[in-house]
Write a structure and sequence with these properties.
Length: about 120
């Protein structure tokens, strides 16, 4: 999919909207969630605009893999790996996706219950 100029997360990654940046490189951008659900709540996105997991194509495997690898790096940098953390992706409105740009939530700093919802 082409970059969506009106996408909130594309605009954040491009620096058009300010956010509390946690990490960035040429492929991914990570920032603090404005409505945190845990003491640490970071969103990590591929810079490539992909609306949802349902829109992934065969050519997107590398960028999603890179995004997940960066999520693990970020969790280690934030020292979440010692006690554990949750990595979440919501797909579709019924699952809680409110911004239609693939993104992963890194949640840590508290005990997580199950089931999550």
């Amino acid at each position: 999919m082409a970059n969506n100029d009106r996408c909130l997360f594309c605009r954040i990654a491009n620096g058009e909207i300010s956010a509390r940046k946690v990490y960035e490189d040429d492929d991914v951008f990570a920032f603090e969630d404005i409505n945190p659900q845990a003491p640490t709540h970071v969103l990590i996105i591929p810079r490539k605009h992909i609306a949802s997991m349902d829109d992934l194509g065969d050519g997107d495997a590398a960028i999603i893999g890179t995004t997940l690898a960066r999520a693990a790096d970020i969790a280690r940098t934030l020292h979440l790996n010692s006690d554990g953390y949750r990595l979440v992706v919501n797909t579709g409105e019924a699952a809680g996706q409110t911004v239609f740009h693939v993104h992963f939530h890194i949640l840590g700093g508290r005990n997580m219950g199950w089931p999550p919802g």
